[in-house]
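Colleagues,

Please find the record for the two-part complex below.
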Amino acid sequence: MAAADADGYTKVKWNGWGAKNRKMEVDAEDPSLVRHTSGKIIRGILPFINTELGDPSQAMSKLDNTPSITIEEAIQKLQAPIVNPPFLAQMKEDLKEDQVKSDGESRVTHIFGKNYRDLWRMRRGMINRAPDVVLLPESHDDVVKIVNAAQKHNVVLIPFGGGTNVTGCVEPNPFETRRMIASVDIRRMSKMISIDKQSRTAVFQVGVMGPDLDEQLGRHGFMFGHDPDSYIYSCLGGWIGARSSGAYSNKYGDIEDMVLAVKLVTPGRGVIETPVAPRQCGMDLKHIIIGSEGAIGIVTEATIKIEPLPAVRRYEGWLFPSFEAGFAAFYKLTNAGISPCCLRLYDDDETRMSFALKTDTPFVQTVLSKGIKQFLSTVKGFDMNKVCLCIIGFEGTQTVVDFQRAQTKGIFCRHNAFNVGTGAGDNWQEKKYDLPYFRDFALSHKLWADVFETTTVYSEALSLWKGVKDAVRQVWKAEGKKGWIGCHTAHQYKTGCCLYFTFAGQQFDDNDMATLFAIKRAATEVMIKCKGNLTHHHGIGYEHVPWMPRYYQQGALDWMLRMKADLDPQDICNPGKLLPPARKKGESDAALEERRAKVMMFDKMGLPSAKL
Amino acid sequence: MAAADADGYTKVKWNGWGAKNRKMEVDAEDPSLVRHTSGKIIRGILPFINTELGDPSQAMSKLDNTPSITIEEAIQKLQAPIVNPPFLAQMKEDLKEDQVKSDGESRVTHIFGKNYRDLWRMRRGMINRAPDVVLLPESHDDVVKIVNAAQKHNVVLIPFGGGTNVTGCVEPNPFETRRMIASVDIRRMSKMISIDKQSRTAVFQVGVMGPDLDEQLGRHGFMFGHDPDSYIYSCLGGWIGARSSGAYSNKYGDIEDMVLAVKLVTPGRGVIETPVAPRQCGMDLKHIIIGSEGAIGIVTEATIKIEPLPAVRRYEGWLFPSFEAGFAAFYKLTNAGISPCCLRLYDDDETRMSFALKTDTPFVQTVLSKGIKQFLSTVKGFDMNKVCLCIIGFEGTQTVVDFQRAQTKGIFCRHNAFNVGTGAGDNWQEKKYDLPYFRDFALSHKLWADVFETTTVYSEALSLWKGVKDAVRQVWKAEGKKGWIGCHTAHQYKTGCCLYFTFAGQQFDDNDMATLFAIKRAATEVMIKCKGNLTHHHGIGYEHVPWMPRYYQQGALDWMLRMKADLDPQDICNPGKLLPPARKKGESDAALEERRAKVMMFDKMGLPSAKL
């Protein structure tokens, strides 16, 4: 087997989510059924689509009409690479032959992340700017060589982990029309360097993917405890770059709590290693590197906190009569000092989707049974259109789990909740990584789906929830379109929580992105008004850059821009992401704003009429 | 009452700890007894001193021999202030008359922090460099005016909160022989600006002292939950500058967890406000400002997380047969996911001191009773010379407290611990702020006492504990002196904990500081070898600066130095603290090291022979 075959990016879909052999599709024999990636039947999804996204007969009639181009066609669409010969020569000298790739497949698979816009363009062959070369470092030292050569020869570097980013963090900047762009794929850097079992720390190369990381730790009886939706296909370095957070963050922490120290290679200032300590003294530099999206350098190694495998894992479902009731119960629970590992509340809209996406399992039959419905509506007084699903997970020792469950039960029951047992929890566990496959399914059936999320303080959370949904629906209304938007909360903090929105609509024409932009604009306005931040855990890519000058007070934004200029004086590190262009000497506010508007990728990528 | 009388610094001792009317002293009638600040009798302290610090008769004979000079004498010793007339004129224009003070008392009370070296010099009138003026801002805008004027006129600014710092953070740099130095006393900035009870956040001016902060929050049913030993006399801004941590950090967090956002006024780059969010996105700037010790600007306001007043507060004592046994029990408890609010383990030496410092209360009589001792040694098999006291505190709802207590009991009992009840806990609560009074008592009786602390990973903690104590004792042995050193753990993290050392000896002569330096050097060598950091929560002042180039990898240190140069290009912000001098253009490693050694305050302050 050639080394190329072993590289992660050759094993996953170039134009969709996940492994090449996994997909969700309409049943070959019965077109009213959809088959889950596992082969199980999902009965509810087509009726859900028909009801929520358009007139059923019309929606049905549009299925199977938006196939993807082939990878060969995509490769044909690539522009000839921009080559910086001395850089390439240096790389060929510094690295092994199979670490430097400029074949079509390598380039095509390193253009995009995996959000709706990314895949929509990929499937349609809307390629503006592909990386000119893909570099595959195997060690910190390899990265040092790459960064040094790139700095010397003014070549752009984009770190590329699992490529699952959904906020435009890994895409080449189309305004880079002269400089060579190298995508630095870190997936070969997947080794555990050391482990300290007593202190529960380990040092890893950051290209290690979720399952591999846990497999390496599992041999020693440990795990990491980080479980984002992208877990299977994303890596430690990506989590660090995006300031990621997993479904179990309430117990194991967000990525900044789980990473004790990092090693960063910068073009302007060499290697920066932050110290390892259970708690830092002085200035804590790691917090500038975590969340920096490759814009100040490339992270190569990290010291992480590791967790013992929990003795007990229990996930269960509850139904609340309304989102507000569930929200109040979560707030009470958190305030009482009870932090279950996982705590998710789906609003009425997302609860319906959640039910629709269920495969045929005993749980679904139970929840949807007439008997339960009747009990909830007559005995408990639920309005069945407002029912909200909650998934709660407990991990740890039996006694801790028992205690947390008892406390939860008390509080949830006082908020009129109804326990639907572990079936719902296990079902969530089984399906938690599946939403991207549903998005792929949607894309191939003249539909689309996307997500965004934020964090806000409790006093603003319900206003934000309502406000965002209203604003998004208003966009559809103004455009005469129909769409669906749902929301769930996850990641509970003492002062607030994350609100995660999923939304979907029908594909119409080449200008569909204009609708997406309008939706994102409208939603972000509400988020900012309601003290939400730009993202909770998806990272700051070009999807968020236009709002950076509004979200941050100018002094703070300018400080970040100066840090960037210091560490990356030629702007070779992932330009166009994280931060807007810096002010040029003597540039007026108006001129700066105009220039920023001109080169911001947000409203240009995927819109045929946009000026690039 | 004149406004000056209302200022905090006029109410506390200029040459010792705490309020002017509180002190620990030998009983007027029976010189074998010491009276606690509360007036209660402490019987154990003099015998403890005699046993641990020297031949009893000799030690006793030296009592009462090292009084302090008077404040009038101290004021006489002040050098004439260095005045920058345009700066002073600007300040007099920008601020009210009583906000600009250059009288002797104001200057004398803003020279030092409150460690042994500080008070030793203060009491002996060893004043090298006092601030030339004390400024008393009342608002963020006042601070902006001060910083702008200082930047314009090249005047040094040292933020001064409660003045309780013990690592040399508030002292004027003696190498500042030409520039005017202003101590910026923020204690008038003590207002709550807003509160969001639902989100449990509040915005405060950072000059607010601990009790005042909690009093203002208490009116709304909340508290902050931050309880450092300095609580009564220190303020929010000081806690932020020093990256402080309180006794209840296991439940309420370290200061960086409790502060959501800060507003910083910098000389070079204006105001930097970090965004308020339950969790940050992108680069998290607040972590550079927290712990920066005024070296990049002055923090004026902060958004903090507030906590509901707990329904139950229960503190109790346990005895472990050895430090190792207690350490293992704490480790197990933390790993099991049980985080009592407060968890402290005193080693054998510190346990003896702890008992010696007890006032006459039922607890002491119980613990020291022959019956208990006999039970522990015969039935439990304790070596009574190795017994270690543990203080554990639980706060929260009754059910959470009950659960944590039951879990703790199970684990502690498996480690052969013995519960000595709430008497010990209540006694600790009552006395937790008292150690500095004991230090003052020591200073006035030809003795001295000091502290330092660190954080390390679990696998190194016991080596560090033993290693530091051995190294310190080695210094005394080499110098033919006798001393006492004890240690306790506090602040339990998943990967490690804080180790806090207290040590004491006899005063000998004018060169006593040389012994202190030797002790600190020896201890820090061990700490660094055992992966300890420079401080857990006391902040990085000139006491730690010499080790910064060793603790931080060069890339990280240089980055911090560049941040400093960017925000404070003239080095007017607290020079000599936090960071060593930056490299001059073209300066060699050797020349830099030589220059740094020359101007580092650590080994010069308080040693008569040191070159200043």
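The domain at 312-432 of chain B is CATH 3.40.462.40 (Vanillyl-alcohol Oxidase; Chain A, domain 3).

Comments are welcome before we finalize the supplementary table.
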